[in-house]
Automatic annotation (TrEMBL):
Residues 875-897, 1240-1277 are annotated as: Disordered. It comes from Cyclopterus lumpus (Lumpsucker). This is Condensin complex subunit 1. The gene is ncapd2. Pfam families: Cnd1 (PF12717), Cnd1_N (PF12922). Residues 72-231 form the Condensin complex subunit 1 N-terminal domain. Residues 995-1155 form the Condensin complex subunit 1 C-terminal domain.
Length: 1349
């Protein structure tokens, strides 16, 4: 047969399976005749190549069998098939547009297309399968992923897709009859595309060209070849199995719906997802995640196309899958930001927008924290895009502030970000606060007073709003009336102007001088023509009514705006206060968000924003590097980005901002700012800043005292070398003749010098000191001496750093301070002599005497510090230099070398010398500092007298200074401390001044560190101040004790219960300090665990009188630190043993409540069972029974079946004892156990042999108990008799009447309050023994005695 006739005689049908082509087909169906073996393929492939060169792409019709055979030898055939398909794509356009194409030619081209496409797709699928299989087998990073063929496929994959896309973009449908492309052909191409999409790397960036080709190829098939339904089904199927395809298919669906116009694909896919039930989604965890990611990303790409189908997805908001709820909320957010936004919405759009906002607000209270966090993030995006309607601001912001208290950290962080977005994009005034709003509303009411009064009667809305501000407006009117003389001048000038310009339009109405015309003229001058209505022509009544209605609506709109502004201001203040408290949370990410929020509110000049900026400043000392870096960057962002055109302007801006920060800054704040290092590195701006600071400090530029003080402190940070080199200038400006006029400037100057010299003194070598006659010391001593006899309240704050500086820089500070004390004492005596008798001016002398005593104490303290630090360090330095010099002069002998090596190994080198130096310092403190010839000794009796006679020396400042100075004297030596420690504790307990008690606590804390053995017996007195009636004293006490305990100065004992009481202190800051104490204490091994039993006993003591609610609150906090299983088990036993020594019912209840707070496990429950005898007799009390019952409820949750059965048995036991009494239950169980024992001849039944109703706890003791039978009765004899019959019958005694005749015994029990009263009449016959055992049980308190007759 001729080749052309042979080609026309058959049709090629794309098979479903590869093997179908070798089977006998239908009439005129092509069948592969010859499958060439692999070894014989090379010559056939060469023929295929030759035919391709000679015949073109139609050669596939003759050599299809060769291509079919090489599906398993792929590398050599891929290029041939690519050329075939490319050739078809190049040759078909001309054929398709031709009108004279014959049927045979059409059939020939169609078969060539189907054959080539089929072979290329199947070959591609085979390559892709091998590639994925090789990637799975080969470990990542270990050699090549495959052979050369696979590497070639990675580079050829895109070419194959481009060839198919080029071919299918042609209108090849005309090759088929009636232009109906067979489904198998489309399926062949789509299967290849979907197979390629299953590659794990398809979503990577490097696969973007391949991904785009597949998307466009499928888009062509969907648009031209009716693959819409198949594509939607395949998208759902692949998303279920391949999670990485969510972003790929989102992009694909977006392209298909926009570029190819197939919008129905979105509806099909969304409908398929929406019809999934919650049960199906619960079974497909990975599929749910893929669906949610797909929906969310598709919503971000085409939100306008998602809007018509959103009703299908909203049903998932009620489902169990939180990931689907998150995805739907994100889609709603995208629609609200990009579709339903702006003022041009119609009524339907506004209704949809409000409905979507309501839906998002509902899910701010979603049960899953991830949903709540994502909804807050969606709102943040909406606010940042300015798509939130003004009417929704208050509602959403209130919800966001409420979410700050959420338990989830992610929700809290998202809420902080949303609030920051609200502040950054708020439509109200940034500097709005509640107080400012009140003034604003009052000013508005007053400025339009006549208008406001006019409309108040017409609108209840305006009336209800303005009435609270009427009084404020009246107050403002009163304030304005104080400047009424200025108004008189305005009236006088107005009348004179009318006389000068009678024809002027402004003053024409004054021709008739009346109050109305005068006020109208003034209104015309100051407000303009819009506010004058006198000269307007009369307006018709209808127009007047319409104008008034319009004005009324404007007034109501303005009032609504003011109300919204007021609400917003309140919410901002609340949010700032809450977020400021988060700055010291333990979670690093929350602290970082809080820091960023503080920066945001400060940048937008929100009122009270500086409080958060200052509060976060101590975080520069945080051990967490991330928090420290966040704070440092925040301060640099706020203060080191000055605005200005020139460097000079920038320098002034920078100095102004830093000066505001330094105003009234404490010493701790200054140290924190130094840690930030604002002025790092040299620059033109820094030199200009230093110049501006010097100008302000020296007074060259007129500035306030606050800014002068800030300038000198900033100079200490910015230019230490400059300040040190200009020390004389600093002294003359701040410490010169006018020093007594501004002690605060002098104080800050001294602090600046101290901070600079601290850095200099830290360097090695000889210490940096100045001679005694230096100008600095002359100015300091002069200022201190002159201030002693003055009543300046800031003198002491200057004196303390000044004395410190004297000891740091002077060569002989002891001599200098001795002369200073003499001079001050002489000045005070001279003042007393000049004033006459003491009684005539007692108040002035008390203040001066207090200042002198404060100076004495400060000198004593720094004298000790000078000896122990500076002198000791100097001795060590000199000793080291001397040893180095001796080693250089003379090398050590061999014996000395051996000895020194041995001493070095034992750590003894230098130890003896250091001990000698330390002993020398101690002797000086003990014998010389308070010797008679030393001036400090002269003031000690005076200090003791003032402190011990508070009735005679009642001046507050004098008492405070004397007590503080005495404590500083006690630091000198142990003998002075021991002599006056009783007096100091007496002052601590009996002083009526809170400041004296607080200072005494701090001083005694320092003394405890210095002389722990002397202060150890007085520890209880320190703990007693935790219950002081003044909050400041309690705060000081808990702060001092926290430091002492955490530094292991004080041993942790039962007194810690006093700190636990502060957990319920009414003052929030004291509660925070107590909580911090236990947080730090919990870091020590088993510290809280060891203390808990003693704390419980002390807090439940009846003498303390603590309520059960407070006790429970404290215990909940403390038991939260017990997390180890072994600790819980041990505590169960300890608390149960405490039942034996507890005396009152309240103590029983507290112990039971404590047991219920433990996170009990199986081992703890076992220990609770073993301790049954400790608490079983207390179970009749509801306060004991209910907490123990709650333990069983907790244990039952999630317990295994066997353990749950044990819990149920224990609960039955508790309930039985609670309802019937312990003695009844034990009598019942004991009788059955004894009957079983006598019947079987065993002394004690085994635990396993007991029935399910047995309530007898197994005993660990090996000693067998004697048989005991106890009987209990009810008050009614009939019940007793019936119960007795039950016992006798169960014991095998059937002849009840004979038994009653033989033996009848009566027993009586009496108890008052704690004793049980009962009267029992029982007969007991023991059939197996012929001996009657009668047992009586007597309860005395918690001890049980058994008497046997």
């Amino acid at each position: 047969i001729a080749p052309s006739l042979w080609r026309m005689s058959w049709d090629f049908f794309v098979p479903l399976c590869v093997g179908d082509l070798v089977k006998t087909g239908g009439i005129n169906q092509y069948v592969v005749q010859d499958v060439v073996p692999h070894k014989q393929l090379p010559p056939y492939i060469c023929k295929f190549k030759a035919a391709l060169r000679s015949q073109g792409p139609l050669c596939i019709l003759e050599h299809f069998d060769t291509g079919y055979s090489v599906l398993h030898v792929k590398e050599d055939t891929l290029e041939l098939l690519l050329q075939v398909v490319s050739g078809l794509a190049a040759s078909l356009p001309a054929l398709l547009v031709s009108t004279s194409i014959s049927a045979a030619e059409r059939k020939e081209k169609l078969n060539a297309v189907k054959m080539s496409v089929y072979l290329l797709c199947k070959l591609s699928e085979t390559f892709e399968s091998d590639s994925c299989r090789q990637c799975i087998v080969t470990a990542p990073g270990k050699g090549k992923a495959g052979g050369d063929g696979l590497l070639q496929w990675d580079s050829e994959r895109e070419n194959v897709l481009q060839a198919l896309l080029q071919l299918l973009q042609l209108d090849i449908r005309s090759l088929w009859s009636l232009s109906l492309v067979e489904e198998e052909f489309i399926s062949c191409v789509t299967c290849c595309c979907y197979k390629l999409l299953e590659n794990p790397t398809i979503s990577h960036v490097k696969s973007k060209p391949t991904r785009d080709c597949i998307i466009h190829l499928l888009g062509v098939l969907i648009k031209k070849y009716n693959h819409l339904l198949g594509a939607s089904v395949k998208v759902i199927q692949l998303l279920q199995h391949f999670e990485q395809l969510s972003s790929v298919f989102a992009q694909a669906v977006s392209v298909w719906s926009t570029e190819y116009g197939v919008r129905a694909i979105i509806g099909e896919v969304i409908r398929e997802i929406g019809q999934r039930s919650s049960e199906e989604l619960a079974r497909e965890a990975s599929g749910v995640k893929a669906f949610s990611s797909f929906i969310a990303e598709l919503g971000s790409l085409v939100p306008e196309l998602m809007l018509p189908n959103i009703s299908v997805l909203i049903a998932h908001l009620e489902g169990e899958s939180h990931t689907m709820r998150v995805a739907v909320c994100e889609v709603l957010g995208e629609i609200l930001v990009r579709v339903l936004c702006g003022d041009g919405l119609d009524d339907s759009g506004k209704a949809d927008r409000d409905r979507f906002f309501d839906t998002l607000q509902e899910h701010l209270h979603d049960t899953h924290s991830h949903v709540r966090a994502r909804v807050l993030q969606v709102y943040a995006r909406i606010v940042n895009s300015k798509a939130l309607p003004l009417c929704k601001y208050s509602e959403v912001m209130e919800l966001a502030v409420g979410r700050l208290m959420d338990k989830s950290i992610n929700v809290v962080k998202s809420a902080i970000q949303l609030l920051a977005a609200f502040i950054a994009h708020n439509p109200y005034s940034c500097k709005v606060t509640k107080s400012n709003m009140n003034n604003t509303i009052a000013i508005f009411f007053f400025s339009d007073f006549t208008i406001s009064l006019k409309y108040l009667s017409k609108s209840h809305y305006l009336k209800d709003f303005f009435l609270p501000y009427c009084q404020l407006a009246n107050n403002m009117i009163c304030e304005i009336s104080s400047v009424f003389p200025l108004c008189r001048n305005a009236v006088r000038l107005c009348i004179r102007a009318h006389g000068c310009f009678p024809e002027s339009e402004r003053f024409a109405s004054l021709s008739t001088l009346t109050p109305e015309t005068l006020m109208g003229t003034l209104a015309l001058i100051f407000k303009g023509k819009a506010f004058t209505h006198q000269n307007l022509p009369p307006t018709p009544q209808k127009e007047v009514a319409e104008e008034e209605n319009g004005e009324l609506k404007k007034q109501e709109m303005l009032v609504q705006y003011l109300k919204d502004t007021e609400t917003f201001a309140l919410q901002v203040e609340r949010a700032i206060s809450v977020i400021n408290s988060m700055l010291y949370w333990k979670t690093t990410s929350v602290v970082q968000e809080a820091v960023q929020f503080c920066v945001t509110v400060c940048e937008f000049s929100v009122a009270n924003s500086v409080s958060g900026v200052r509060k976060m400043l101590p975080l520069v000392w945080s051990t967490d590097t991330a928090i420290k870096d966040a704070v440092v960057q925040a301060y640099r962002r706020l203060y080191l980005n000055p605005q200005g055109e020139t460097i000079r302007v920038k320098a002034h801006t920078l100095v102004d901002s830093l000066s505001e920060l330094m105003v009234d800054a404490s010493l701790g704040t200054i140290q924190c700012l130094e840690e930030i290092e604002f002025f790092g590195g040299g620059s033109n701006l820094q030199s200009t800043v230093v110049q501006v600071l010097w100008e302000r400090f020296t007074g060259k530029r007129e500035t306030s005292g606050l800014h002068r003080r800030a300038a000198v402190l900033l100079l200490g940070m910015a230019a230490r070398e400059v300040v040190l080199s200009n020390l004389d200038t600093l002294c003359s400006v701040a410490l010169g003749e006018k020093v007594t006029e501004d002690f605060l400037l002098a104080r800050d100057s001294v602090l600046t010098i101290c901070s600079i010299t601290d850095h200099v003194r830290q360097s090695k070598g000889a210490p940096f000191r100045l001679p005694q006659d230096h100008q600095l010391f002359t100015c300091l001593t002069q200022a201190i001496a002159e201030g002693v006899v003055m009543e300046d309240p800031y003198w002491q704050s200057f004196m303390e750093p000044a004395v410190r500086l004297l000891y740091f820089l002077s060569e002989s500070p002891d001599q200098l301070c001795s002369r200073l004390l003499q001079r001050c004492a002489r000045l005070l005596l001279d003042q007393i002599v000049e004033c006459g008798e003491l009684e005539s001016n007692e108040q002035v002398n008390c203040v001066c005497l207090a200042q002198l005593l404060a100076l004495c104490g400060c000198v004593a303290f720094w004298q000790v510090s000078h000896l122990e630090r500076s002198v000791s360090a100097e001795l060590r330095r000199r000793r080291g230099e001397r040893e180095e010099r001796e080693e250089k002069e003379k090398g050590p002998s061999s014996k000395a070398k051996v000895r020194s090596a041995m001493e070095e190994e034992l750590g003894l080198i230098g130890a003896s010398a250091e001990d000698t130096e330390a002993e020398l310092i101690r002797n000086i403190c003990e014998t010389e500092l308070l010797a008679e010839e030393n001036l400090l000794c002269a003031f000690l009796p005076l200090l003791v007298r003032v402190c011990s006679s508070p009735g005679h020396y009642s001046h507050p400042q004098l008492t405070t200074a004397a007590c503080l100075a005495l404590s500083q004297y006690m630091m000198i030596s142990p003998s002075v401390c021991e002599e006056n420690v009783r007096l100091m504790f007496t002052v601590l307990e009996r002083s009526t001044l809170p400041v004296v008690r607080a200072n005494a606590i701090i001083a005694l804390g320092d003394l405890t560190v210095r002389f722990p053995n002397i202060l150890e017996p007085w520890t209880q007195n320190l703990y007693a101040r935790l219950s002081d009636e003044v909050p400041s004293v309690r705060q000081t006490a808990v702060t001092v004790l926290t430091q002492l305990v955490l530094k292991d100065v004080l041993k942790v004992k039962g007194q810690v219960s006093e700190v636990a009481v502060l957990l319920i202190d009414p003052e929030h800051h004291i509660t925070s300090l107590a909580l911090n104490f236990f947080n730090e204490l919990a870091s020590k091994d088993n510290a809280i665990y060891n203390l808990l039993p003693d704390i419980i006993s002390r807090l439940s003591d009846p003498e303390r009188g603590m309520t059960s609610e407070d006790f429970n609150t404290i215990m909940k906090r403390l038991f939260s630190y017990i997390t180890k299983e072994r600790q819980t088990e041990s505590l169960v036993e300890k608390l149960c043993q405490r039942f034996r020594t507890a005396k009152t019912e309240r103590q029983w209840c507290d112990l039971a409540m404590s047991l219920s707070l433990l996170s009990m496990c199986e081992r703890g429950f076992k220990r609770l069972q073993e301790c049954w005898e400790c608490y079983s007799d207390k179970l009749t009390e509801p306060g004991v029974y209910q907490p123990l019952l709650s333990i069983t409820a907790k244990l039952r949750r999630g317990a295994k079946a066997q353990f749950k059965a044990q819990v149920d048995e224990f609960e039955k036991r508790l309930t039985a004892v609670h309802t019937r009494g312990l003695e009844n239950v034990e009598n019942l169980n004991t009788f059955f156990d004894r009957r079983s024992a006598f019947g079987t001849g065993q002394a004690k039944p085994s635990v396993s042999g007991r029935g399910d109703d047995s309530f007898v706890t197994p005993q660990k003791s090996r000693k067998s108990k004697k048989p005991v039978i106890t009987f209990s009765s009810e008050e009614d004899e009939e019940d007793e008799e019936g119960e007795c019959c039950h016992f006798i019958n169960s014991s095998g005694i059937t002849d009840r009447e004979n038994v009653l005749k033989d033996s009848y015994y009566t027993f009586s029990f009496f108890r008052h309050d704690q004793f049980l009263f009962c009267q029992t009449k029982y007969l007991c016959h023991l059939k197996m023994t012929c001996i009657y055992f009668l047992f009586t049980q007597l309860y005395l308190g918690l001890q049980r005695h058994i008497f046997i007759k």
